[in-house]
TrEMBL record:
It comes from the Eukaryota. Belongs to the oxygen-dependent FAD-linked oxidoreductase family. This is FAD-binding PCMH-type domain-containing protein. It comes from Mycena albidolilacea. Residues 47-218 form the FAD-binding PCMH-type domain. Keywords: FAD, Flavoprotein, Oxidoreductase. Pfam families: FAD_binding_4 (PF01565).
Length: 489
């Protein structure tokens, strides 16, 4: 059957709209190489969808034209894609129009202000390579392949958080195109309500084209990764608990119990990533981790860039276009993150978490399992001392950090097993954490690691009403309701 096209047909309208775009903007239709690359470069296979087309704006005015197109076609849905790492399907993918921000690739360092302009088409890995070697920014650092865009819109925990807070605490100004089509630069003294809302408010307020971020000096570092067999669990738990009283802001550890399917066999391994933001940490900081019998899967690093390139979990080159020289850790997978928000750590909480994961391994392979892990990431109680008031509540004196739960599997049919299971485990562990005094009730859930079913009120808590009124002001016709994400009413 020949598809009927009329003036109101979105494809026809898009063809017209394409003529008004800047010469550098691109539109890719199904079957083209550009389309295939864009729709397949997601971290999770479960995020892939087949959009009507892929639109790559090159300048802010292209996005203005896009919002005009949407205004004339109320049924058009869309998605905005940065680095393609967010887990819930449909948050940066769509069967409508995919706005791929890949052409916003600026990483421009300003020596006079020591700030850097970063485009939403960049992954953190690129940003670090393009900054002067003695400067850095508090962006993703435990997993550099993550996109700047989602990270900066949701919060941004990193190895630098003990020193500099979240990524959203390090943003000086934001360039955004709001649904009316207006192009704005927002900061603390200009459209400050929108600036406040965009720091943690996700994709509720428009399409961001640039973040100007504060940079910090970067010197040599200490980075060591230890791996342990499962029989060392008790000792590693002790080491985490002893470390969790750490108050040295230069140090950070991430420790995870990882079950991976390798040649049809489930292999458990415990990993501790130890980071110190100077070449030589004080002896006592990591000595307990070092003393447990271990292997070291990667060499120790003394510089930031090498560490970024080599950390486990970074390597998904086939999906992110990093080139054949990068070896992938895992075959392509579906999956989800979830998180339990913690105010502190106790042995009993780690034990309760491991007691949940252990039995899961029995059914893991039969449900398409590829890898699963709980990730214990203790931050200092002072982690929010430099926090700035913004959309996502993170307040001095109220530590709130994610216990990260990660599940990867293959086969769409296995979604029905894993998605409800993840929600059940998250509720169970949240209740346990509150009972054990490791979490407070109603702690704001972290947008970027939340499972699909999380209520938006759980993310924004007391800030939700203010966010709703800001949204009403800047998106009164609810254009952003036509894209996926945790939607502020
Ligand atoms: C391997 C891995 C490691 C991670 N490690 C960390 C970590 O250490 N710390 C941490 O805090 N988080 C971490 N995360 C979570 C990460 O912060 C989120 O997944 C984040 O959303 C990824 O951003 P992205 O640009 O890659 O994602 P995308 O999927 O492209 O986008 C995420 C959301 O942002 C929206 N968006 C994208 N670009 C724009 C734009 N220009 N304007 C408006 N909206 C836009 C999208 O519509 C989508 O809803 C990790 C995730 C993965 C997969």
């Amino acid at each position: 059957m020949i598809r009927k096209t009329t003036m109101s047909d979105p494809i026809e309208a898009i063809k017209k709209f394409a003529k008004d775009l800047s010469p550098e903007a691109k539109i890719f239709y199904p079957g083209s190489a550009g389309y295939e690359h864009s729709v397949s470069s997601y971290y999770w296979v479960s995020s892939e969808q087949n959009p009507l087309l892929v639109f790559q704006p090159a300048v802010a005015q292209d996005i203005t034209m896009f919002f005009k197109l949407l205004a004339g076609h109320q049924k058009l849905s869309f998605a905005i894609k940065g680095g393609g790492h967010i887990a819930p399907p449909g948050f940066s993918s769509t069967t409508g129009l995919l706005v791929d921000m890949a052409l916003f690739r600026q990483v421009n360092y300003h020596a006079d202000t020591q700030t850097v302009d970063i485009g939403p088409g960049r992954l953190w890995q690129d940003v670090y390579k393009l900054l002067p070697p003695d400067r850095t920014v508090a962006g993703a650092s435990s997993c550099a392949g993550v996109g700047v865009a989602g990270f900066n819109l949701g919060g941004g925990y990193s190895n630098k958080t003990n020193q500099f807070g979240l990524a959203i605490d390090n943003i000086q100004s934001i360039d955004v195109v709001v649904p009316s089509g207006e192009v704005l630069k927002v900061c603390e003294i200009s459209n400050e309500d929108l600036f406040w809302a965009l720091k943690g408010g996700g994709n509720n307020f428009g399409i961001v084209t640039n973040w100007t971020m504060i940079t910090q000096a970067q010197g040599p570092i200490y980075s060591q990764t230890y791996q342990y067999t499962l029989d060392q669990s008790v000792k590693v738990v002790d080491a985490i608990i002893n470390y969790s009283t750490n108050v040295d802001p230069l140090s950070n550890i991430e420790t995870y119990w990882e079950w991976t399917v390798d040649n049809g066999k489930l292999t458990p391994i415990i990993t501790a990533e130890c980071f110190y933001d100077r070449l030589t940490p004080p002896t006592e900081v990591f000595q307990e981790f070092e003393a447990i019998p271990h292997t070291t899967p990667t060499p120790a690093f003394d510089n930031w860039l090498d560490r970024m390139a080599a950390l486990p979990g970074n390597r998904q080159s086939h999906r992110l276009g990093w080139g054949a020289e990068v070896v992938d850790d895992l075959p392509p997978f579906r999956g989800r993150f979830s998180c339990v928000m913690l105010s502190g750590f106790k042995k009993e909480l780690i034990a309760a978490t491991l007691a949940v994961f252990g039995p899961l391994s029995i059914d893991f392979i039969s449900h398409g399992g590829v890898q699963m892990y709980p990730d214990f990431w203790p931050f200092n109680p002072s982690l929010f001392d430099n926090s700035k008031d913004c959309a996502w509540p993170h307040v001095k004196g109220s530590p709130n950090t994610p216990l990260v739960l990660n599940f990867k599997w293959q086969g769409e049919e296995n979604d029905a097993y894993w998605v409800p299971m993840i929600e059940k485990i998250t509720s169970q562990l949240t209740a346990a954490a509150i009972e054990l005094g490791c979490a407070v009730a109603d702690a704001p859930v972290y947008y970027n690691l939340a499972a699909d079913g999380v209520a938006v009120a759980s993310i924004y808590q007391g800030n939700l009403d203010k966010l709703s009124s800001i949204r009403q002001k800047w998106d009164s016709t609810k254009v952003m309701d036509r894209t996926g994400g945790f939607r502020i009413p």
